[in-house]
Amino acid sequence: MDRTTLYKLFNFNLDRYLNPYIPHSRLHAFPQPFRHFLGHRSKPHIEPPALVQWPLIFISTLAGLCLVAGIFNYGPAIAALHPPVMIASLGASAILDYNTIRSPLAQPRNIIVGHSLSAVVGVGVSKLFQLNSSLFANYSWVSGAVGCACASLVMSITNTVHPPGGATAVLASTEAAAIQLGWIFVPLMILASALMTTVACLLNNILRQYPMYWWTPEDVGSKLRDHDKADPNKLEKQVSEADSERTLRHVDSHSGDEVDEHGVHEIRILSYKIQLPPEIDVTDEEAIVLQNLQYRLRTRDEVGG
């Protein structure tokens, strides 16, 4: 087994296998008002001043949490299940969803899938501990700790890390109402996280941009492009995409990193991916410049396609 294979084995990335089959974003084809509130912009977005952001953060957080609590407490079908008055982990999600909205941890995939997987894992661990009722009664806190650890592992493997998901897993073992719900806790968490994300799209996009991406900022759809090569109607678009992403490179047999033909590590800005050499750290301002360049390239490709 060569070093490149070992490197990939010990740096497992699920997206390496999923992304080739994920289609490119088609938000640009939506009517303007819809694509705007889904995070699409025709030109790089500039964040408003902090004094303008703060009132919007306050209103969005209040609206998101009140919407979930209102539905959980007064929605006839859900209220009959006697769910928790307020799922504590959603408070932490609100800080990410409506405040630090540019963070990878705050994007829809992480919010919805992260909470969902954490709920499944948390309830599963809780159910296992409940097989011994006396043990669970005295050591539910151990069940909560095991559930959180397992949820953290699952989110890491699936690239859906959302810190409040850890609290979701803990609640499944330590919150009486959540324990009583059992597996019903899972669809309730999916609904709650989806509602929070909906509010984030509606209110954040009034003055800001959310989300930054729906699945990943990396390149996607390579397998789909290969499949479409036989279609002459799509050939022109493929050539355009190839031109936008073409660069002279080969793979370093020692590190597995892509380098240029002279053996020097390079910065690559593609439509859906930015690659930086591991030894280069960028400041926030430099990251914004790179993202703006990527956005211009992505917009050109989408409009041209």
What would your notes on this structure say?
The structure is a single chain. The longest helix has 25 residues, at 50-74. The chain has 2 domains: 3-25 and 215-304, no CATH class; 42-204, no CATH class. The protein has 14 helices and 4 strands. With 305 residues, it is mostly helical. It is globular, with a radius of gyration of 22 Å. It has helices at 3-10, 15-18, 32-36, 50-74, 76-79, 89-98, 108-130, 133-157, 164-174, 176-181, 185-204, 222-228, 235-245, 284-304, and strands at 250-251, 258-259, 268-269, 274-275. The two termini are 41 Å apart. The strands form 2 sheets. A two-stranded antiparallel ribbon has the order 1-2. Strands 3-4 form a two-stranded antiparallel sheet. Helix content is 59%, strand content 3%.
Would you summarize the structure shown here?
Residues 223-258 are annotated as: Disordered. The protein is mainly alpha-helical. Helices cover 59% and strands 3% of the residues.
Feature tags:
305 residues, mainly alpha, 2 domains, two-stranded antiparallel sheet, 14 helices, 4 strands, globular
